[in-house]
Amino acid sequence: MATRKSKNNAKSANRNPKSLVAVLMGSKSDWETMRATSETLAKFGVAHESHVMSAHRTPAWMSEFSAKAEASGIEVIIAAAGGAAHLAGVIAAHTTLPVLGVPMTSALNGLDSLLSTVQMPGGIPVGTLAIGKAGATNAALLAIAILANSRPELKTKLREFREEQEAKIRATTLD
Ligand code: RP5
Known about the structure:
Elements lengths: L1 H11 L8 E5 L5 H13 L4 E5 L6 H10 L7 E6 L5 H7 L5 E5 L7 H8 L8 E2 L4 H16 L3 H19 L5
Parallel strand pairs: 1-2, 1-3, 3-4, 4-5
Helix pairs in contact: 2-6, 6-7
5-O-phosphono-beta-D-ribofuranose binds next to loops.
């Protein structure tokens, strides 16, 4: 018990009191993909924190973190998992904050992760993004869009980002 407590305290030290978004993932193996979430949030200047946190390997910590997230200033939780991907759904059960799920690629090419994340029974929503890196990037953009409802500066940055994408496509030439 003492060991578990000291581990949790060590994890608490990694908390950023300014975080608006928590990026959680079931395994370090998800980080290669979820780095895109963190990088996108950073590009928009959104304070966030990323943790490996598992619904089945650290259930107590996951429950505590998600139950206390809102009180600690978090406004959106992004949860990524692969396989029998219950992380986002279980987190959503502990909070009324918006929870965005990102299905990781897996032994079944992410289809198991997608269905496990997206098929929440009515009542406890998880906004589910695409499998893999596209979903990781879009989870950050959707979190930013949620935050932008009350932050005009973020809305401006989002509009500029859309304009950049449009300019790139319009400038595209083919051989
Ligand atoms: C899930 O199982 C994780 O989210 C990860 O996508 C998958 C495999 O985990 P590892 O075996 O790589 O730790 O819990």
